[in-house]
TrEMBL record:
SUPFAM superfamilies: Nucleic acid-binding proteins. GO terms for biological process: negative regulation of intrinsic apoptotic signaling pathway in response to DNA damage. Residues 9-95 form the Replication factor A C-terminal domain. This is DDIAS protein. Pfam families: Rep_fac-A_C. It comes from the Eukaryota.
Length: 130
């Protein structure tokens, strides 16, 4: 964009990605690289134990106003009220559910969660700060 900030009233057409949380650096909010024991932020150099990594919401949407379609990503705790829990709590729930169900990827969003997010957002109108 051209650096101008504003508000956009638009309806959600679709959810673009089923990964709703990501491991985030607590200093710069960039995606962390995680292995089984450690995390590393490539942007600011922050490092730590994998079990101490924080998570942040990331919801990628296709939205439409009266004239145009847009791809937009909503980040952070503004999504807590929609999910009912923090991103860290949701990540723990996803991992617990996947462990109990035998899912190979412990971070994959269960189909029920994806369906619930689609039901909550698709077809609804929101005001986005862009």
């Amino acid at each position: 964009m051209n650096g101008v900030r504003g508000l956009l009233a638009a309806s959600v057409i679709s959810i673009q990605d089923s990964c709703f949380v990501y491991p985030a650096c607590q200093k710069c909010y960039s995606r962390l690289l995680l292995d089984s024991r450690r995390f590393n932020c490539l942007k600011c150099g922050c490092r730590g134990e994998a079990e101490d990594a924080g998570y942040r919401y990331r919801l990628s949407l296709k939205i439409a106003d009266t004239r145009d379609l847009f791809d937009i990503t909503v980040f952070g705790s503004c999504l807590d009220p929609f999910f009912g829990v923090t991103a860290e709590d949701l990540q723990r729930c996803i991992q617990d559910f996947n462990q109990l169900s035998g899912e190979i990827n412990p971070d994959a969003s269960p189909g029920e969660l994806v369906q619930a997010v689609e039901t909550c957002f698709i077809g609804r109108r929101f005001i986005f700060g862009v």
